[in-house]
Write a structure and sequence with these properties.
The chain is of the alpha+beta class. 37% of the residues lie in helices and 29% in strands.
């Protein structure tokens, strides 16, 4: 293990903060060593509202991860999300001036830097510039231009920006918890790498990560991200509805949602009874499971209709072949069936690929595992900078595709 590189992913979410520790060997293989997590009490809809609470919760998760793995954690790749995130597609160009007109890795980085220079409104900063495809001398559809001959290299990119102040608040919390931020990654981008298959990415898929405070949406077509957005509705809204509708405590509402909830009332037996405690801890009241589903279903319908409208507004309603749900909200019984009904797309629940830790093969940890892939790609780039060999290309092949191969930001 002495030759392996420690990598750490930090998922700063609305309901939980999770730190996952892995190691990366010289062939680009990732192995999960362990994790730690803490309830998140300082964020609302993905945005920091209490610096001290968020710092405390990050420190607790990192301490737990360090204790579970025996690894001293000093830095991490950090996931971010929130309503402040926005995206756009843009195009950039550079000239190839070498005598032999052969495109180099430097040329690719130069055109990506030109794309990164796209003007953004005051108070916002670029989080990522994701290549969607290249063009060499007008020939579209080029994926790997290095080594090709040409005079003009163009790139279509997906540019993701966030509020500078919101991003800085996350940075402050992580640093106050004693960590250095290696880089910030938009959470739906990380989740895509954890749960989508290469075939889904090529054919056109919408990834819907249902978190506690927000739902992250990413559209992937032809192997590259074409659209990202954050919808301010998540699992906590379902819990709130149950708290009010059942006149019970939030704790009991959350328990009932997880253990007995259903997103589609037609899937529930009519006479299936539950006992619902009152708010003040008095006598329980009998209630049908279908009555609970009748409270949940309208909120989940709202969420999926918002996703459908997002896809329609950006012209993707007729270009996708499937949908993948992930995040804690995807575990709600009936969630994929209702999504398939409203989105009119075959829908499955996406789980992270096995990295040697069975307990993390849950949609709940999709973002964290995706961040670990990004951390591995970052280490691969750093090794390439000090090595004359082609380690980066081999590592990127191990990490399977666009996310690890093309990330810039």
């Amino acid at each position: 293990m002495t030759q392996n590189q420690i990598i750490v992913a930090l998922d700063v979410g609305t309901t939980k903060i999770c730190a996952i520790v892995g190691d990366l060997d010289s062939d680009g293989n990732i192995r999960v060593l362990g994790m730690g997590q803490s309830p998140s009490e300082g964020l609302r809809k993905g945005v920091v509202v209490d610096l001290d609470a968020t710092t405390r919760d990050i420190r607790a998760a990192v301490t737990a991860a360090s204790g579970a793995t025996g690894v001293e954690i000093n830095s991490s790749v950090v996931g971010v999300t929130g309503e402040h995130v926005s995206s756009m597609n843009s195009r950039a160009v550079t000239s190839i001036t070498h005598a032999n007109r052969e495109i180099s890795e430097h040329d690719v980085q130069k055109v990506l830097e030109n794309a990164r220079s796209t003007p953004v409104p005051s108070g916002r900063e670029v989080i990522h510039v994701l290549p969607r495809g290249f063009s060499v001398d007008g020939q579209e559809g080029v994926r790997r231009p290095v080594g090709m001959s040409g005079c003009r290299l163009e790139v279509d990119t997906h540019v993701i920006t966030g509020s500078s102040s919101f991003l800085q608040n996350v940075l402050k919390c992580v640093e106050h918890a004693g960590l250095t931020v290696d880089s910030m990654v938009l959470e739906p981008v990380a989740s895509c790498e954890a749960v989508l298959t290469p075939a889904e990415k090529e054919l056109g898929v919408v990834m819907i990560d249902i978190g506690g405070g927000t739902t992250d949406v990413a559209v992937v077509i032809d192997g590259a991200i074409a659209h990202t957005s954050v919808i301010p509705v998540g699992g906590n809204h379902v819990t709130n509805d149950l708290t009010v509708g059942l006149k019970t405590s939030r704790t009991e509402a959350e328990r009932l949602k997880i253990e007995c909830g259903c997103a589609l009332a037609s899937l529930v037996a009519v006479n299936d009874l539950l006992n619902v405690p009152s708010v003040e801890g008095g006598a329980t009241r009998p209630m049908t499971r279908q009555a609970v589903a009748d409270i949940i279903e309208p909120r989940m319908q709202e969420l999926y209709h918002l996703v459908r409208e997002e896809l329609r507004r950006h012209g993707f309603q007729d270009t996708l072949t499937s949908a993948v749900l992930t995040g804690g909200g995807s575990l709600l019984h009936g969630a994929p069936e209702l999504a398939q009904e409203i989105l009119e797309l075959p829908t499955r629940v996406g789980r992270p690929r096995n990295l040697g830790a069975l307990e993390l093969e849950s949609p709940v940890y999709a973002t964290g595992i995706g961040l670990l892939y990004f951390a591995a790609a970052r280490q691969a780039r750093e090794r390439q900078e000090v090595s004359p060999q082609h380690f980066l290309a081999r590592a990127f092949d191990q990490l399977r595709g666009w996310f690890s191969r093309l990330f810039a930001g």
